[in-house]
Queue: 2 jobs
Job 1
Amino acid sequence: MSSQRIELLAPLTGLIVPIESVPDPVFAQKMVGDGVAIDPTSNVLAAPTGGKVKQLHSSHHAITLLTPEGLEVLLHIGLDTVMLKGEGFKALVREGEEVRTGQPLIEFDAELIMKRGKSILTEMVVTNGDKVSAYLPGNGFARVGLTPALTLELVGGAPSAAASVAEGQLSDAVKVPNPTGLHARPAAVLANAAKTYKSDIKLVRGGDDANAKSVVSIMGLEVKHNDEIKIKATGPDAQAAIKALTELIRSGCGEDCGPGVPAGKPKTVIKPVVKPHSDDPDVLVGVSASPGLAVGQIFQVKQDVIEVREQGDNAEVERRRLDDALKEAKQQLEALKSEIEDPGKAEIFSAHQELLADPDLLDIAISGVSEGKSAGFAWRKAFTTYADKLAKLQNEVLAGRANDIRDVGRRVLRLLAGVKEAELVVPDNAILIAEELTPSDTASLDRTKVLGFATTGGGATSHVAILARSLNIPAICGIEDAVLQLPNGVPVILDGTRGTLRKNPSEAEVQQIRDKQATLARKRAEEQATAHQPAITRDGTRVEVVANIGGLDEAKQGVTLGGEGVGLLRSEFLYLERTDAPTEEEQTQIYSDIAKALGTTRTLVIRTLDVGGDKPLPYLPMPAEENPFLGVRGIRLCLAAPEILRTQLRAILRAAPLSKLHIMFPMIASLEEVREAKAIVAEEKAALGVTADVKVGIMVEVPSTAVMSEIFAREVDFFSIGTNDLTQYTLAMDRGHPKLAKQADALHPGVLRLIAMTVKGAHAHGKWVGVCGGIASDPLAVPVLLGIGVDELSVSVPAIPSIKALVRKLNKSDCVKLANEVLQLGTAAEVRARLASLAD
Ligand code: PEP
Ligand code: MG
């Protein structure tokens, strides 16, 4: 045997048969792996090579050995013999046992097997073929333990290196930083990254492990915040996989733990053991899933049962059916995604598409098919196994994903069963009641008829709840089960904010709600009607109200809602979740499209790439950092990798003639950074021959910059205050920390004083100041910001009309007094109390 060749000896005495001739497409088409078959005359299966028993099938008809070279060799006695459920098979070894070449593994009763109508043709295949460059099957009659039945040539592979691969390499323990652990999104990022490696990769926590290439398997491990996990990789690129994946885990798997987390809400949600209960017999309580009020009538929604046959036609046909249904489901999801305006919410269905390719789900389904089940039966087993497993987990976020697996599972099942999705015929003013609604149901609700919904399952973090919020439908999850007994047509008031459902409300109660709704609707309509008028205070101070955006759609929406420009284009969207950097052409195209959407009269502030640390880029490997928020992020990263910055700046400059374009650098902490970045802008501008007047400004997110704003103002054209980060760095509180969400308050007097300092320094040199952090969209904070002298508010797109309307109601002189007053207060709570007293 040469160093790159492995000989597998015949595991049985008998005739060697090419694998392609096995009368079972699962083997003949090498779906399980490549190898040979033996038509045996002996009845004791022996080890074809030394190794470890990796898996012994519970029916004892199949066994997998892990060889010292890291090969997994499956020995499968007979065809369809799994159906015998162990009858006629006797295992002679146990899982985990080391065996030597020729050692007896399984004894079988060939006569009994044949009497039961099964073939005893035995297969020997390698299931991790990425390590094998050539299969050289023997031929003729073979003797057990003596005749080579299959010779394998390995990829590269000196034996010394192979030895460590065989056992798999194990990383050091990594602490999971994600506040909610490895829930669906980070699990998907991790699985996708793992899939780029050939090695077999596992996540190991204590005695448990999961397939790192399978989202459902990772979620099933229920990895929590601060859990210590290791990566085990076996294969040719094990070392590289371990390095990249441990770094990815350490950095949060691309999860931005900062914005978007409702203040004051812990992000790790443990499933409530006992459901809330009301003492008022007319009120049923649950958890608020989506705010708002609705008055309507009960309409119960029941899930249809999808029937499928258990027995399949033949494995090849069933496998094709499964593949076709998976393909079709993927297309349906693509269509559904295009109907959802909010790209963030459309991602929910991208995750569903990924589930369709999940290796662990497919493994169960394909092995069901190979055991003779119909594609529908095997697929249902696969997705219900995983959904049930997840539903039992303690973590509400992970348990909530069971509903997603059932949703996508039923979508495929319907296609396999040839049944159409039953169309819901919903009456007017319906309040839907169900045990569970799926994300697909929710996304396709008829908004002209459905006013709200309540489900006994799910929680505030479920995808259904997220969709309900984006569709603006009041909703309750986890409501008392008694709701399922309410007959159709019963009048109810659904309070999505409080999480209550009131049955049989009095006329007066209904009227009160209708009045409230009418007032709110009038206010919204007025705000919309005046959205395109400027935001000028009663005493004549104009404030620019512009949009924070993350792409072209939001740019267009912002203009429609009266946005006077874009105060912050978070350009990260172009860089994240891809394997290579966006090209200059790609970027020029998208910046130009956004600039055109705004036109030449509106301002467009493009913030240069703000990643690193907590938001890693796969194509810019960075060493892991102890404190990513204090590490190489924002402008520091760009100056350390100037080619990325130069490419982006060239693309921005090329779009310059199309609007009032501004360049803004993030995370500026020192003057040197500003000077270096400005010099690069000047060089690229000259090289391109761009003559347009492109303003260059900085974000104020670091206290040093706020304190020294007067000095900075001499060298930049404008400031925009990122209060999300400024608060984090001023108070030394992680902006995404679940326990500090309440204290990390941008209305802390310390932060307000830094905003005031920034404005003073900027105005001393005639430079303007915007605020683009979260408080600019908070109606409570707006009077103070105006009083401090902020010139521009860059707000979330939906908030544009209401913030403009609010500015028009204020008097700048009153705001100045108010700001002077609150700047003297000692705590954020005092500031909030004072501002709330004015809002009442
Ligand atoms: C901020 O820090 O306030 C800000 C607007 O930037 P980001 O939220 O993108 O970090
Ligand atoms: Mg920031």
Note: The first helix runs from residue 25 to 28.
Job 2
Amino acid sequence: MPFTNRIFSGIKPSGDLHLGNYLGAIKRFVPLQDDFECIYCVVDMHAITVWQDPADLRRWTYEIAAAYLAAGLDPKKSIIFNQSQVAEHAELAWVFNCVARMGWMARMTQFKDKAGKNSENVSLGLFAYPSLMAADILLYKATHVPVGEDQKQHLELTRDIAAKFNNDFGPAIAAKGYEEEYFPQTEPVIAGPATRVMSLRDGTRKMSKSDAASDMATIYLMDDADAIAKKIKKAKTDPEPLPSEAQGLDARPEAANLVSIFAALADKSVDDVLAEYGGQGFGAFKPALAELAVSVLAPQATEMRRLVADPGEIDTILRDGADRARALAETTMAEVRDIVGFVR
Ligand code: TRP
């Protein structure tokens, strides 16, 4: 029996959402609703792998839920919930902690980058993070996960965990009459171009929620129209006019970033944008980009502010989503307990 086409993805509530989160993730989640059964999560249990102030964690959880809704995720079509409301995520992660090998986890580049020289003093949860991510995905037997470049290795680990579980417990799976491939080999949904949104102050660094250099480097999803326009107009550029071909952007990181932001916001290719603006200077391009960004983002920011001002509506949506997620999760978890040999 083939697996149902199902998407799972999640965003961590660990900072204010910005344009990179929107173009790289949230915006891409919306059209997938038409072709897949979708489960979109606020992964609060992942967030606490590094210290989070409880009030911030709560605020950022609401902010992500609000951004999902404002961007057009439909809670009637998709399941929208926060991870900690479905305890089966933690339960399956424990089983996966016992399937995954220390050596696999130790190879994760994101852990190595985050832990750095401080690896003795980071949380055990940070080390086990990818096993919780595998549990998120496999609890729902998700067949597809939209991920950015930085999460590819974690998705490969998810496939390794699925394969090792299927293999280690093969005889028990067969004895209990379940499909031999109990957990699927989840595929990445490859993001198109222009998913990497760079800082407005330095085109060689990723746009991030905590830009030490300046707040002008980052467009936050809660920014109002004035802030969006101002940040774009003050963005770092070079003195040359825009090229007519994409190759002309090669050694021009700031120009390349603004053109790719334009393309992503307008649902156009970089070539289309350059066909229109090639030969023009930033004096003409920046106001056009600011107008486009404001028209796309400002109404969503307004809707997000309305939703977070009275979180009752979000509470209801998250609770309903969690109920629907739990119904699926309970089925998988009951089978996994049965396969592993836990007595009930
Ligand atoms: N690790 C992901 C990130 O940092 C977030 C995440 C947690 C996730 N669980 C997931 C993404 C499951 C996709 C699927 O961005």
Note: Strands lie at 6-11, 37-42, 79-82, 144-147, 187-190.
